[in-house]
Amino acid sequence: MYLLEIKRYNLLTREEEIELGKRVREKNDQKAAYRLATSNLRLVVKIAMDFHRYWTKNLLDLIQEGNLGLLQAVKKFDPYRGIKFSYYASFWIKAYMLKFVMDNWKLVKIGTTQSQRKLFFNLAKERDKLIAEGFSPEPRLLAERLAVKEEEVVEMSQRLGGWEISLSAPVGDDSREAYGALLPDPGMSTDERLSENQRR
Q1: Using an 8 Å Cβ cutoff, are 108 and 163 in contact?
Q2: Which of 49, 83, 171, 200 is least buried, going by the fewest C-beta atoms within 10 A?
Q3: 3-state class of 170 per DSSP?
Q4: What CATH number has the domain bearing residue 38?
Q5: Which of 113, 152, 153, 107 lies closest to 130, judged by CA?
Q6: pLDDT tens for residues 132-159?
Q7: Contact (Cβ atoms closer than 8 angstroms) between residue 182 and residue 91
Q8: 3-class DSSP state of 178
Q9: Which domain holds residue 8?
């Protein structure tokens, strides 16, 4: 029913996106915000379907979280940066969905300690760095790099290894982005992640 409902909202041209974005940014035009959001509801569904291949719970839960990310993108969108709204919004949508999955997935209850959070967000990246530098990613080296205990590295590696969402798996068949690259690191805002991605 929901999928049929959102099909009635027309997609926007690039020019329409820019104009609506200006109205939202400069005049807080709620009608413009509504149109910018509703015209991109299909984008939320598409991303949710990609996630749903790994997330076995209710698809509508993912869509609901993605819609919250979409609304945040509408508020933050800067039409003067020359970035397509759908591209910008996808970062917010994925960030909200990933946070939802992490908060609810039984194997990803990572706790609240600083070490656990640091490991969750950085372990895969640091392992890749060591391999790129020609080192074997042993727990001892990873612990030194991340300033945590070796046993904490081993424990988190085991927990992430059992997570059904592979952090190296691409988000969608037509995407080069991996789930791990999109993890909403609490030390970096979505806009900062977007800027970093553009520099790559």
Answers
A1: yes
A2: 200
A3: strand
A4: 1.20.120.1810
A5: 153
A6: 899 888 999 999 999 999 988 888 777 6
A7: yes
A8: strand
A9: 2-105
The total domain count for the chain is 1
- Is residue 134 included in any domain, yes or no? no
Helical ranges in the chain per DSSP H? 2-6, 14-27, 30-38, 41-52, 59-76, 85-104, 114-132, 139-146, 150-161, 190-199
Q: Please indicate, yes or no, whether the overall pTM of this predicted structure exceeds 0.85.
A: no
CA atoms of 37 and 120, how far apart (whole Å): 32
DSSP symbol at 148: S
For the stretch 157-196, pLDDT in tens is: 776 654 434 444 454 445 555 545 544 444 455 555 555 5
Q: Rounded CA gap, 24 and 12, in Å?
A: 15
Classify residue 26 as exposed, middle or buried by CB count within 10 Å of its CB (0-12, 13-18, 19+). Answer: exposed
Instruction: Let me know if residue 10 belongs to a domain.
Output: yes
14 domain residue, yes or no: yes
